Amino acid sequence: MAWDFETDPEYQKKLDWADEFVREEVEPLDLAFPHLQFVPLEGKRREAIDPLKEEVRRQGLWATHLGPDLGGQGYGQLKLALLNEILGRSSWAPIVFGCQAPDTGNAEIIAHYGTPEQKERYLRPLLEGECFSSYSMTEPHAGADPTLFTTRAERDGDEWVINGWKFFSSNARTAEFLIVMVVTNPDVNPYKGMSMFLVPTNTPGVEIVRNVGLYGEALNEGSHALIHYEDVRVPAGALLGGEGQAFVIAQTRLGGGRIHHAMRTIGMAQKAIDMMCERVLSRETAGSLLADKQFVQGYIADSYAQLIQFRLFVLYTAWEIDKYSDYKRVRKDIATAKVVMPTVLHDIAWRAMQVHGALGTTNEMPFFGMIHGAGVMGLADGPTEVHKITVARQVLRDYKPSDDIWPTQWIPKKLEAAKAKFAEYLELEVGNQ
Ligand SMILES: Cc1cc2nc3c(=O)[nH]c(=O)nc-3n(C[C@H](O)[C@H](O)[C@H](O)COP(=O)(O)OP(=O)(O)OC[C@H]3O[C@@H](n4cnc5c(N)ncnc54)[C@H](O)[C@@H]3O)c2cc1C
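Above: the input record for the complex with flavin-adenine dinucleotide. Below: its predicted structure, written as tokens.
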């Protein structure tokens, strides 16, 4: 009997250490240095944060998403999930543990598809936590449907020349390099006509036109770039993987990225439940604690039920990835986790906000940030609707149409078959009467 819901004691010790470390040492960074996670370290910030990263390395928890050959611990997705749900409590924690999106996914594809030179130039500094990267795929006119992308790279001797626009390239403003998805052959099916390039952000012709902010951020002070690529020349060696391989590479990147978001979402939703429970045990109204009101008990039960289902499913999906080492094979469950994630976070954060009354709606509590985060989860790495289509298609693969005008479970037909199967006994029963 191989099903097992226990963490091995050695790793549990590491998780316990991480839990306390994140609460005591890392969560305060979210308030001391807000919105600076993706700004290269310098001065006092470096003095504060470098020792924390060092401590994580000493504990063997640095960059655990990657195998030992790439500087990580090779713990696999299940162990990463257990760690990530702790890191999800804090926006600085993934940086301090060397496993922040989008750099994890970017590192993963360079590790998979990069040449030795590309790994040396881009992957090593990424893994050392000394630089950031940006994934530049979405375009202003098209996101959910990548077959509509038009940004183009044309071969010119030993170089490629890139022209076009990209939108929502997260962290491009502080990234050392961009991974850009472009059309290299417009004459074939788009799934075979696009390629990925590694482009240093300071390459002439790369212009960040605007840094789009999320809701609540000041205009043009956000971190999601609108980029104009104008006659951007890169050498042939900037091609990542083979020509026409962009879709295959994107799936490698997004498969891991999506499940990592789900893991961290567990931590965020658990934090909301923690706050909700503390509040309802602390606040009295109309003669009793909020915790004694049935509506509020319903909030707690619903939140626990939603989170425990989601958590077990994410852990199961992580286990499947480890077992099969094949994102494609686990695609249905990764997409399902992606579909469920925004609703779980939204519902739990909303209830937690509600029980905090007016205070819950303010910028002195984190609930609106979480609810906004739920909205983002429904779009980043592809909209929920598109992932539902994936889930449905994958589910339907295991079925075939009825070979009759009646469904196979149509009772009159099944009854007839059952009677025929047990005719001998049915006759006997009739005979006994
Ligand atoms: C915080 C954040 C960070 C991001 N970071 C990056 C990044 O680093 N790099 C990058 O390249 N992109 C990034 N994105 C962009 C993201 O990948 C796109 O927003 C997403 O793919 C959707 O594209 P779109 O915004 O153009 O929406 P559209 O493609 O215009 O879709 C709009 C809406 O239409 C509906 N819809 C779309 N397709 C279907 C369908 N087939 N069936 C039914 N309904 C449909 C959905 O409701 C969808 O939300 C980020 C987005 C966010 C919010």
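Notes for the reader.
Residues 16 and 344 are 25 Å apart (CA to CA).
The chain has a mean pLDDT of 94.
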